[in-house]
Amino acid sequence: LSTLRILFTAMCVTIVILFMSTDQAHVSDTQVMVEFENGDFHFTFPNPKNVSEFSMTLFRGREKKEICAFHLSKERVISKSNVTYCQTQNSSSSTIFILKNLERKHIDVYTYCLEIFLPPPYIDCCLKETYLYVQDKEDCFSLGRVSWIIIGVIIFAISCVCCVVTCCLRNKNQKCESNSLEYNSEYMPMAAVNAAKKPRI
């Protein structure tokens, strides 16, 4: 009887654990989407499932300086930004942090953290780190200028090759024409000779 009681208790505990795990908040482990649109960087994060209150925060640097945050609960939705270049957008499935007008000084590691308040237990986890590299407009301009210079040099080289080929073909044609004139001058034109008439007898 004691053995059966232990087995029955273990089965009940397993059922309770399974029931609790199905009701717990689910944190999606999908990859963060970083997109570049119209000069802005979009960090898109999936919202946690089965959650009634949570916060998302975007930190910058190894010292974890908070630059943008989003808090959602049943009563209200709060978006907070500590810098001018960060904005927040939220939908039913995801939260987007938009970084605008970035310069070379904004190159850094950006970390996304999620806090789940309800339902219990409280969860605090930093899910993703992304290294963001920003290229200056001057670098883009100089890179474009170099590319145009390279294209110009290539076009000039092709033009030179075409001119050389054209000159060679023209000289070859002139030499052929002069050779044909010399060949024809060796034969002098001869007058037509009428056949002698036979005398009549």
UniProtKB/TrEMBL annotation:
Q: Which residues form the Immunoglobulin V-set domain?
A: 30-135
Question: What keywords are assigned to this protein?
Answer: Cell membrane, Disulfide bond, Glycoprotein, Immunoglobulin domain, Membrane, Signal, Transmembrane, Transmembrane helix
Q: TM segments?
A: 146-169
Q: Which Pfam families match?
A: V-set_2 (PF15910)
Topology versus the membrane: Single-pass type I membrane protein
List the record's Gene Ontology CC terms alphabetically. plasma membrane
User: Where does the protein principally reside?
Assistant: membrane
Q: Which domain of life is it from?
A: Eukaryota
A GO biological-process term: cell-cell adhesion
Compartments where found: Cell membrane
Q: Where is the signal peptide?
A: 1-27
Assembly: Homodimer; disulfide-linked. Interacts with ICOSLG. Interacts with PIK3R1. Interacts with TBK1; this interaction is critical for the maturation of T follicular regulatory cells.
- Protein name according to UniProt: Inducible T-cell costimulator
Organism whose genome encodes this protein: Nesospiza acunhae
Gene symbol?
Icos
